[in-house]
Amino acid sequence: MGTTSQALEAFQYGVLDFVAKPFGKGRLLEVLNRFQDKIKNDDVNTKYLSVRSNEKYRLVKIENIMYMKSVGPYIELHLKEGKMELLLKTMNRLEQILPTYFFRTHRSYFVNLKEIDSFCHSSGGKYEVSLKDSTVLPLSRSKYKSLYSLFHN
């Protein structure tokens, strides 16, 4: 059995990554970070976020969010139906409570992986994510590699 077929069989059992020898410190850190992220979000079962509007709190279904953008102390929730809500939370707190189908593409953005149409390296050394509704969001260089590995296992 070849290395490729062994790796494919391992992924069927839920292996997060395959580290071939010899490997460097950078590669090992990448795998450990991926593992840590998986552990952190595996038990997350958040279904709603509460937004305040006119002295009331309303619940927004997380599955209806296409992407989130940090703007000062607020997070803009861009919903599938074209609406936008404001949430008073930090990006780091959201990272802890969001389900695994949300991916941080940039220091100021989270995207629902189900809404991604494509991602690419664009001109001038920039990277971007295009959503199904044609919205284009920034993608950091390091997150490009992580996103690529999510879709190319």
Could you explain how this protein is built, in words?
The mean pLDDT is 82. 30% of the residues lie in helices and 35% in strands. The chain contains four helices and ten strands. It is globular and about 60 Å long. A hairpin with a 5-residue loop joins strand 8 and strand 9. The chain is α+β, with helices and mostly antiparallel strands. The protein has a domain of 107 residues: LytTr DNA-binding domain (OB fold (Dihydrolipoamide Acetyltransferase, E2P)). 16% of the residues are buried.
Q: What is the level-2 CATH architecture name of the domain at 45-151?
A: Beta Barrel
Helical element count? 4
Number of strands: 10
CATH class descriptor name of the domain at 45-151: Mainly Beta
Along the chain, the helix and strand elements come as HHEEEEEHEEEEEH
- What's the N-to-C terminus distance? 19 Å
Enter the CATH topology name of the domain at 45-151: OB fold (Dihydrolipoamide Acetyltransferase, E2P)
Shape: globular
Major β-sheet profile: 5 strands, antiparallel
Tell me the structural class. Answer: alpha+beta
Q: Which superfamily, in CATH terms, is the homologous superfamily of the domain at 45-151?
A: LytTr DNA-binding domain
Beta-strand content estimate: 25-35%
Give the strand order of the largest sheet, numbering strands 1, 2, ... along the chain. 5-4-3-7-6
Rounded radius of gyration (Å) = 18 Å
Uncertain runs: none
Roughly what percent helix?
25-40%
What's the pLDDT, averaged over the residues?
Answer: 82
